[in-house]
């Protein structure tokens, strides 16, 4: 019995128990069930670790400033992506609301449909709103960085990943000029995208 007590004391002193990620508790993370996602029909696995993180904006729907608005935005995007575009689910791996709340889309394990030829080699993160002129709130930007770090910590995103905007992969205004100007100053930003 004494050996068990000693082990627990030693274990606690060297942090043997799992640590909370930087995502907790500062940012709230909502699963698919939390926002009442429809069951996906496209369950294609993602080969990890991925070498790219691709940043998007929605343009429409507009920025969501409350949890309920973000749930509505997620449901709207999923409906459009599944029913109008026949993508089998919402296209993004994750989406982020104004307050920094993070919403699981396809998640870490499934390939997204968000950036053409980059889908096989990336995690797609969408900042909900139109960021062509307006800058996203700081909480949204910090949550994006924390989410990327979580992906690195999980071994899903390569530690030497490259960060790019959707407009570097396809002809689009996404992720918006204002947001692109911000991410172009972040660590890991790359001016080039290529699939070997």
UniProtKB/TrEMBL annotation:
What the entry lists under SMART domains is as follows: Ami_2, PGRP
- Disulfide bonding pattern of the chain: 64-70
Q: Does the keyword Signal apply?
A: yes
User: Which molecular function terms from Gene Ontology are attached?
Assistant: N-acetylmuramoyl-L-alanine amidase activity; peptidoglycan binding; zinc ion binding
Domain of life of the native organism: Eukaryota
Name one matching Pfam family.
Amidase_2
In what residue span(s) does the N-acetylmuramoyl-L-alanine amidase domain sit? Answer: 38-176
Where's the Peptidoglycan recognition protein family domain? 27-170
Tell whether Nuclease is among the UniProt keywords. Answer: no
Going by the UniProt record, its keywords in alphabetical order are: Disulfide bond, Immunity, Innate immunity, Signal
A single GO BP term for this record reads: peptidoglycan catabolic process
The positions making up the signal sequence are: 1-16
Assembly behavior? Monomer.
The family line of this record is: Belongs to the N-acetylmuramoyl-L-alanine amidase 2 family.
The name on file for this protein is Peptidoglycan-recognition protein
């Amino acid at each position: 019995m004494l050996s068990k007590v000693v082990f627990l004391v030693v274990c606690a002193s060297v942090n043997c128990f799992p640590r909370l990620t930087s995502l907790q508790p500062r940012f709230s993370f909502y699963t698919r069930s939390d926002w009442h996602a429809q069951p996906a029909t496209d369950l294609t696995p993602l080969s990890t670790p991925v070498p790219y993180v691709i940043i998007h904006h929605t343009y429409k729907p507009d920025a969501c400033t409350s949890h309920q608005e973000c749930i509505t935005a997620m449901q709207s995007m999923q409906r459009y992506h599944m029913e109008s575009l026949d993508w089998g689910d919402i296209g993004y791996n994750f989406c982020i609301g104004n307050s920094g709340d993070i919403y699981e889309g396809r998640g870490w394990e499934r390939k997204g449909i968000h950036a053409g030829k980059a889908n096989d080699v990336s995690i797609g993160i969408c900042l909900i709103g139109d960021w062509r002129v307006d800058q996203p709130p700081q909480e949204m930007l910090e949550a994006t960085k924390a989410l990327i770090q979580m992906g690195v910590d999980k071994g899903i995103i390569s530690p030497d990943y490259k960060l790019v905007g959707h407009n570097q992969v396809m002809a689009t205004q996404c992720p918006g000029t204002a947001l692109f100007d911000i991410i172009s100053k972040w660590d890991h930003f790359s001016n080039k995208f290529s699939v070997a």
